[in-house]
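I would love for you to help me understand the pair of lines that follows before we discuss the fold together.
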Amino acid sequence: MHVERILALKGNDVISLAINETIGRAIDVLSENRIGAILIRDDDGFVRGVLSERDIVRGLGQMGARCMDMSVAELMTRDVVFCGPEDDIDTIMAVMTERRIRHLPVMRDNQLLGIISIGDVVKFRIEEIETEAAAMRQYIATA
C-alpha cells in the first residue's frame, strides 16, 4: 500500500502557519485543531519547517515562558523530511522510526498534497492487518 491511500482515507487538509507567527499562536492552532504538528510556510507558501509539540516542549524547557513570544522559525525543525504519494507504507514506517519523526508532509512536483502522522500510518496498518486476518479466517472456514 501507498501513502496516497492514507490521504484518500483521512483527507488532505493541511494546517499551516506563516513563518513570522509566534509560538503562542502555534500552540493555540495545535490545540484548536487537535494536531501534534504544524507546517511553517514562507510568504510564497513554501514549506520551510515543521513545528511539533516536541519542539515546543523543548523550547519551554530551555527558555521557559519567554519562548511564547518567539517566532515559530526559532523552534521549528528546518530539515523537513517529505514523502511522496507513491511511497510504500513500510518504507514510510522505517523512515519515521529511523529519523524519529512523527509527521511527514506529502509532496508531488513541488505541490503539497497533505500530511501524514505516525498515528495515521499505524491506524492504516492495523486496518489492513484486520482485513487480511478476516480474509484468512473466511478462507479457512470455507476450505
Q: What stands out?
A: The chain has one domain: 3-142. The domain at 3-142 is CATH 3.10.580.10 (CBS-domain).
